[in-house]
Amino acid sequence: MIKIVFADDHEMVRIGVSAYLSSQPDMEVIAEADDGGEAVQLALSLKPDIILMDLVMEKMDGIEATRQIIDKWPEAKIIIVTSFLDDEKVYPALEAGATSYMLKTSKASEIAKAIRATYEGQSVLEPEVTGKIMTRMREKPMEQMHDHLTDREMEVLLLVAQGKTNQEIADQLYIALKTVKVHVSNMLGKLDVQDRTQAVIYAFKHDLIQ
């Protein structure tokens, strides 16, 4: 049996969904909560297989409840079941640790299907949520290797690109030769290149130098 804790501040919603899920041969709603704080207590004390979590509840919302549960029990599997698709709900809920995200407009059978899939280790997202995530990924600039360089390592890279030796870099930056070697080594590692020549090629390709 898949043991479920259901948190929603609308009693009629809880009654309807719980009745349907409990009619399934492989599911059992073992507890219900009408606010996020109670959901946290029930989740941590009962350790259910699945937690169905509404987002907008009094006292504590579903995002904070999800965050607290995951913080204390990282293995918890939480399915958000909500009416909201706006960005300020979707992304914080997923970042808090929710495994799946469903809408209350979904059919009861779809909720049950999502529960089974989440129980098996899958992540189930409403198509609209998947679309939002893909759009956000396309709009977000790809992280570059050189983003991880410190200011000093970037200075060293630019001087290497100018053909400076380690000693010349040390003299220009007023640092020890040994320190330059450390910076060069770190710079090569962060850029994932094998030698100084490849580092210069990387700098040209990414318009770090002309």
From TrEMBL:
Instruction: Name positions with the PTM 4-aspartylphosphate.
Output: 54
The record's principal subcellular location, in a coarse class, is: cytoplasm
Could you provide one GO biological process annotation from this protein's UniProt record? regulation of DNA-templated transcription
Quote the CDD domains the UniProt record gives.
LuxR_C_like, REC_NarL-like
Tell me where on the tree of life, at the top rank, the source sits: Bacteria
User: What would be one Gene Ontology cellular-component term for the protein?
Assistant: cytoplasm
Q: Keywords for this entry?
A: DNA-binding, Phosphoprotein, Transcription, Transcription regulation
- List where in the cell it is found: Cytoplasm
In terms of InterPro entries, this protein maps to: CheY-like_superfamily, NreC/VraR/RcsB-like_REC, Sig_transdc_resp-reg_C-effctor, Sig_transdc_resp-reg_receiver, Tscrpt_reg_LuxR_C, WalR-like
Give all residue intervals belonging to the HTH luxR-type domain.
142-207
Q: Tell me if Protease is a UniProt keyword of this record.
A: no
Molecular function via GO:
DNA binding
The Response regulatory domain covers: 3-119
What is this protein called in UniProt?
DNA-binding response regulator
Q: What is the organism lineage in this UniProt record? A: Bacteria, Bacillati, Bacillota, Bacilli, Bacillales
